[in-house]
Write a structure and sequence with these properties.
Oligomer: single chain
Largest sheet: 4 strands, antiparallel
Number of strands: 4
Strand order of the largest sheet: 2-3-1-4
CATH architecture: 2-Layer Sandwich
Strand content: 25-35%
Number of helices: 3
Number of domains: 1
Helix content: 25-40%
Structural class: alpha+beta
Length: about 90
């Protein structure tokens, strides 16, 4: 399963976010593959795309960062998976 996450530093927490990131604490937990991470150039947050069959690992990671980041994650599917479902329901 793929999960798209957005994150933003909580007010006043950007220095701590940067410290943890540089200390290597932003690596995914075992069982999670980080497919990509992008940082907004205005430093207001970013996006990551992860793959896992264990959503609890994503939950644990988010919990570890919840004091300094606001994180929102969504299960996502690709066009090749969505297309057949759309075709089945909307035969227009």
């Amino acid at each position: 399963m793929k999960f798209l996450s957005t994150y933003a530093a909580r007010p006043g927490c950007l220095p701590e976010v940067m410290r943890r990131f540089l200390a290597g604490q932003a690596q995914p937990l075992p069982g999670v593959t980080l497919l990509g991470r992008w940082h907004k150039t205005d430093l207001s947050g970013g996006f990551s795309l992860s793959e896992t069959d264990d959503p609890t690992a994503l939950y644990e990671f988010a919990l570890q960062w919840s004091d300094v980041l606001e994180i929102h994650s969504s299960l996502v599917i690709e066009d090749k998976e969505a297309g057949p479902v759309i075709a089945k329901l909307y035969k227009g």
